[in-house]
Amino acid sequence: STIVLVFEAPKGVRPSLDEGYKGERKGGFRWKIHQGKKVKVGEALGYV
Amino acid sequence: LNSALKNTKIKWEPIPIALGVGFLGVWQLYRIQRREKHTQREADKDEVVLDQQGRPKKREKIRPSGPWTVQIMSTLPLKALSRLWGRFNELDIPYYLRVPGFKLYSFIFGVNLSEVSEPDLHVYPNLAAFFYRTLKPGVRPLDPNPNAVLSPADGKVIQFGTIEHGEVEQVKGVTYSLDALLGSIRPTYKGPAIEAAADAREQASDKHTKAGEEDIMRADEEFAQVNGISYTLPNLFSGPWPKDNKPSEMPSDQATKPQPSSEAEVRADLALSEAKRPWWAPASAQTPTTLYYCVIYLAPGDYHRFHSPVSWVVESRRHFAGELYSVSPYLQRTMPGLFTLNERVVLLGRWRWGFFSYTPVGATNVGSIKINFDRELRTNSLTTDTAADRAAEEAAARGEPYSGFAEATYENASRVLGGHALKRGEEMGGFQLG
Asked: Is A27 left (phi over 0), alpha (psi -120 to 50) or beta?
């Protein structure tokens, strides 16, 4: 059995070069998992 | 056998040329026939297919492409096998065999018996009951961060990422469209002014009046005009906003019981959303959003109940009565679009940041999907299969393509939220054997 989640979440904003932009978005949703990771109910998959 | 093997004389002879030519001819005919059938099926995809008596044909079983293992599997009556498997596992196990039997199962599939809520394994009469076990309170603590998206179940992360151009990546290089997985995601809801509509409904009498409905429709239109909303989200909504924004005519789930505690929490969470933006409306430039997806595989030994990952409102469910292929990581690698073929229940709704969907996908051994707040839902059932066939026939008779799912809404669950409220970590349902 499998569960598929599809959801909308903030993707973060690109800070300007003056703010130290290094190609990464600031804020937004961040995954805290990797492929093949075993997870348990209640464990965080990611954070907004 | 020994003497037969030793004494039988082996005589080698060349295969007659005519036989070889005949075989190749038959093979060629078979290939041509198969190709023609495939071409015909492609051509008839959006057309009404009639049989010799002029009646619409039943929906054709989709034959997936893939290696020989997949081809063999596609010929098996998987749903019937799944039901048989379910019945078999509901047979009571003799009392004294229960503990050794469940311990053997736990050893093979890695069940942690110390987490099981019922320490006395004799209590479980059969494997189906043990499979759908509950856990001790407190063994699955929720992540304290309120901004976390929680894991809905025990399992393994198969795939995750963002959705580009409306396509979900199943494995590297194999993708399927979001519409194929969830059905066409166009809003069938009453409209954007959720709060205004909710207030109007609160003020209106309990009886559903036409005048009240018209007020809500008018509020929706005004909201749309004022905000200049285009009603499309990139990569998600491909079509225009339906002009006849009528409420769904599908029967709502009367069995749904609103839970006041969940509702209050979900309302508080939704109140944090940006200017109370409805889930389908485009986000402002300050907080651009995108679609994320995550696929979690539950192994046979895992706890098979699933929970809500966030606080959200389920507005509708779509039941796709598909096939029941195994969803093992091997088949996920080898069978393209596996999740779009299997029987699944798509729950659609909204959360603080917009759209949210939750899709439990069935498999051969666990074909029954249970949703706690939807008592009308029946999965892996002969009745629903027949109903799906009938719906396909009716759609064909009307000259329309079959949507592939049966839909129900939960709008009666909560007048204020317009759906069933679920708080983070709340148990939603589970997978049962067969």
From this structure: left
